[in-house]
Amino acid sequence: MIRKVLIANRGEIAVRIIRACRELGLDTVAVYSDADRTSLHVRRAREAYRIGPAPAAESYLNIGTLIDVARRSGAGAVHPGYGFLAERADFAAAVMDAGLAWVGPPPEAIEIMGGKIRSREAMLRAGVPVVPGTVEALADDGAEAAAAEVGYPLMIKASAGGGGKGLRRVDHPSGLRAGLEAARRESLKAFGDDEVYLERAIEGARHLEIQVLADNHGHTIHLGERECSMQRRHQKVLEECPAPFATPELRSRMGQAAVAAARAVGYQNAGTVEFLLDPGGGFYFLEMNTRLQVEHPVTEMVTGVDLVKQQLRLAGGRQLRLVQEEIAWSGHAIEARINAEDPYNQFLPSTGRIAAHIEPTGPGVRVDSSLYEGLDVGLYYDSLLAKLVVWAENRAAAILRMRRALDEYRIAGVKTTIPLHQKIVDTTQFISGSYHTDFLSEAFVTEVRDDPALTRAAVIGATLLAHQRHGMVISHLAPAKGPSEWKLHGRRARMLR
Amino acid sequence: MKYIATIEDHDHVVDVDRPGEVLIDGQAHRVNLRSIDGVHLYSLIVDDCSFELHVERHHGVYYVQIGGDRYAVDVEQERLKRLRALGGQRHEEHGGATVPAPMPGLVVKLLVSEGEAVEANQGLVILEAMKMENEIRSPRAGVVEGIAVAPGAAVNKGDALMAVTQPQAVASTGSAPDGA
Questions:
Q1: ipTM tops the 0.85 cut
Q2: How much of chain B is in helix, strand and coil states, percent to nearest 5?
Q3: Does the beta-carbon distance from B73 to A462 stay under 8 Å?
Q4: In angstroms, how far apart are the furthest CA atoms of chain B?
Q5: Does residue A497 register a pLDDT over 60?
Q6: Could you tell me if A444 and A420 are in contact, meaning their C-beta atoms sit under 8 angstroms apart?
Q7: What secondary structure, in 3-state letters, does chain A show?
Q8: Is A291 a catalytic residue?
Q9: Catalytic choice (A291, A313, A337, A401)
Q10: Is the CB of A345 less than 8 angstroms away from the CB of B178?
């Protein structure tokens, strides 16, 4: 029985996990680096322990320190969140060796799914379709023959790859050698491993993923798909549940494949199986994320299942109470990732102090965030600041709700990707649901609407501020404050008299 | 007082002499502008239509964001603009604390961190361009603020890398409405 949970993470996901713990009556232990002393997860947790200086390698990635804090605090379980150590089999093993519950799958499952070549082999054995390509690591000798068999255009992929690194597309045999060299070099630099393999390139592919839940008693179910095709440089930007064109039949087939994939590696706890969907409706295993996903809230909104609470129950050895036949999908949810990046300047990361912060609220709106006014957004960690999630009875209503919520959202002090999302939700491709993974181009947000009322407002605002700046008397710009404290005091005194 | 506001390559004459009213190219509009956070956010009502503006000022240009759209507005006093047209120089305001990238490149390393005090000519960033590593140095003594790049980031010529502000300048911007 778990009573206290150490959250080995920071930012919005640490806050999200703390929320689930509190609702389950579990005590919470936060950890923080020097850059995070006043972060929201520290303030929301029951206990908080310093684990080192700001660089992640010296704090959030330090397995020894984290295990030590877990012992000292008397925590019974460790939740890794996503990123950092979430997909490190050695961390999972260290947690279990310390006699603690690991809120995640067994280290062996992480290990198999962590290598692309290993996981493709396991999937082939389990009868899960994989993207056609080479099964074993590619040798330089005979690469041409292997490539010809796979067919062009093809993708060279690093076995250890992720996040677009060690990935090369080759359209013609003439580019194979250079592509191989570049992919190997990049993979060696990023992952310390230069194993690569080949996959046929699938044109116009969509990126769908299936959420699975598995207990320690042989019971595995799926919670349907998420559409994750809205990407920029292989990073997800916006996600939906359900996928715009998913039929119950496709969901059922992909769900069964995902359950088979999870069973094949002895999976337990929550996980996500990613698939490529070709324009003809064929789907292929890409990889399995052996942890909670950033975009898990869209599934929660549509199925009503709290995935983090499920994770904590399952980690405690409980049986799944959910059964496949009872999982139902209601309405539509969309998540927009709000990153500290400047969409008007090549998505360069943006840092600074949050000067103003107004979150959208109202019907069907959920914000998973670690932002507050006064927070210093630094350079040390991921640029994800918040996730804006909306739910509505159908996709059209959800899009309108997302547009409304984005309009309400105000973050000042750092540049954010809110304007990018405001542009996305107005495109015909997004509204019609017919977008795929290379929809977002580099120069996506530079065009502005040619609306005379907006242009006029911009001219007036800028000119009045310039006028004020030049020290001219300005009666247009009144102070935002209400009556003075003295006046209010007088009024109150009069009322009491 | 008359200003020339340039937006999307169009010049507009804006007259702000009368309280609660502006004339844009001779057309009168009732206006009311209020600061929300004292820094960037403003509420603007123009002829009973309500707008929220997020305003930042860089190198004398106002970047006004309304909804998902961002407009660059260059505002100049009409008198000065006319003088300049006669051959004078535009009065460049000094105090732009931003350190721009002198060339396009890849940020290899940051040599300073947020809030660090630096000397003039101290190295700030290593920028790789054309396979050469270049040290970008501080144009002035001051405090590093608003680091806008991270190692691995690609920058264009003129992109802000960071700001080096003089401590006294930091204190005095506290009351400025557009201290961006």
A1: no
A2: 10, 50, 40
A3: yes
A4: 57
A5: no
A6: yes
A7: CCCEEEECCCHHHHHHHHHHHHHCCCEEEEEEEHHHCCCHHHHHCCEEEEEECCCHHHCCCCHHHHHHHHHHHCCCEEECCCCCCCCCHHHHHHHHHCCCEECCCCHHHHHHHHCHHHHHHHHHHHCCCECCECCCCCCCCCHHHHHHHHCCCEEEEEEEEECCEEEEEECCHHHHHHHHHHHHHHHHHHHCCCCEEEEECCCCCEEEEEEEEECCCCCEEEEEEEEEEEEECCEEEEEEECCCCCCHHHHHHHHHHHHHHHHHCCCCEEEEEEEEECCCCCEEEEEEECCCCCCHHHHHHHHCCCHHHHHHHHHCCCCCCCCHHHCCCCCEEEEEEEECEECCCCCEECCEECCEEECCCCCCEEEEECCCCCCEECCCCCCEEEEEEEEECCHHHHHHHHHHHHHHCEEECCCCCHHHHHHHCCCHHHHHCCCCCCCCCCCCCCCCCCCHHHHHHHHHHHHHHHHHHCCCCCCCEECCCCCCHHHHHHHHHHHHC
A8: yes
A9: A291
A10: no
Domain ranges of chain A: 4-103, 132-200, 206-432, 458-497
pLDDT tens-digit map of A423-463: 999 999 999 999 988 888 655 666 777 889 999 999 999 99
Closest residue in chain A to residue B51, using alpha carbons only? A457
What is the rounded average pLDDT of the residues B83-110? 69
CB contact under 8 Å between A346 and B64, yes or no, is no
Chain A residues within 8 A of B110 when measuring between CB atoms = 379
Fold observed for domain B98-174: OB fold (Dihydrolipoamide Acetyltransferase, E2P) (2.40.50)
Q: Give the 3-state secondary structure of residue B152.
A: coil
Confidence band (pLDDT; 50, 70, 90) for A485? low
Decide if pLDDT at A478 tops 50.
no
Q: Please, which residues 424-443 of chain A have a Cβ atom closer than 8 Å to chain B?
A: 426
Specify the 3-state DSSP secondary structure of B83: helix
Q: How far is B148 from chain A (nearest CA, A)?
A: 5
Q: What is the pTM of this model?
A: 0.81
Cβ pair B94, B17 in contact under 8 A: no
CATH 3.30.1490.20 fits A132-200, yes or no: yes
Lowest average pLDDT, out of A262-271, A392-401, A467-476, B19-28, goes to A467-476
Which residues touch A159 (CB under 8 Å, ≥6 apart)?
A: A115, A116, A117, A118, A137, A187, A193, A195, A196, A197
- Taking CB atoms and an 8 Å cutoff, what residues of chain A touch B62? 461-462, 465-466
Among the CATH numbers 2.60.120.700, 3.90.1150.10, 3.40.50.20, 3.90.550.10, which is that of A4-103? 3.40.50.20
Quick check: A410 contacting B, CB < 8 Å? Answer: yes
Domain A206-432: assigned CATH number: 3.30.470.20
For the stretch A103-134, what's the b/e string if a residue is b when 16 or more beta carbons lie within 10 angstroms of its beta carbon?
Answer: bbbbbebbbbbbbbbebbebbeeeebbbbebb
Q: Which CATH architecture fits B2-85?
A: 2-Layer Sandwich (3.30)
- Closest residue in B to A451 (Cα–Cα): B69
